[in-house]
Amino acid sequence: MKTLYDVQQLLEKFGIVVYVGKRIWDIEVMAMELDHLHEARLVSDKQFINAKLILTKEHRYEEHRQNNNHRA
Q1: Closest CA to 48 of 60, 26, 31
Q2: How many angstroms separate the CA atoms of 38 and 11, rounded?
Q3: Which of 13, 15, 9, 53 is nearest to 31 (CA)?
Q4: In whole angstroms, how far apart are CA 45 and each of 23, 54, 55, 62?
Q5: CA–CA distances in Å: residue 54 to residues 57, 66, 69, 70, 71
Q6: How far apart are CA 54 and CA 72, in angstroms?
Q7: What is the tens place of the pLDDT at every residue in 9-57?
Q8: Among 70, 6, 62, which residue's Cα sits nearest to residue 34?
Q9: CA distance 59 to 24
């Protein structure tokens, strides 16, 4: 698992499709859904940690992108 798309594919294996309409919100909802799957022991610790790292990276990227767009 290396990309946000990979995390989406993992969630879809459990019937979870996230589309809120804004990418940063999608990432936040995906993180919450992933937390629920991990609490239910449906994903391994390794999958969970890897996916959370990807989501954190993507969330920071979106925050940075949004902050730069507001300054322009």
Answers
A1: 31
A2: 11
A3: 53
A4: 25, 14, 15, 26
A5: 5, 18, 23, 25, 26
A6: 27
A7: 999 999 999 999 999 999 999 999 999 999 999 999 999 999 999 999 9
A8: 6
A9: 6
Q: Give which of 6, 31, 29, 10 is closest to 19, Cα–Cα.
A: 29
Residue 21 backbone class (left: φ over 0; alpha: ψ -120 to 50; beta: rest)? left
Q: Which domains does the chain have, with CATH numbers?
A: 4-71 (1.10.287.760)
Distance of CA 63 to the CA centre of its chain: 14
Question: 3: buried, middle or exposed (CB in 10 Å: 19+, 13-18, 0-12)?
Answer: exposed
In the numeric block, the tokens 């294996």 are attached to: 13
More confident position, 72 or 40: 40
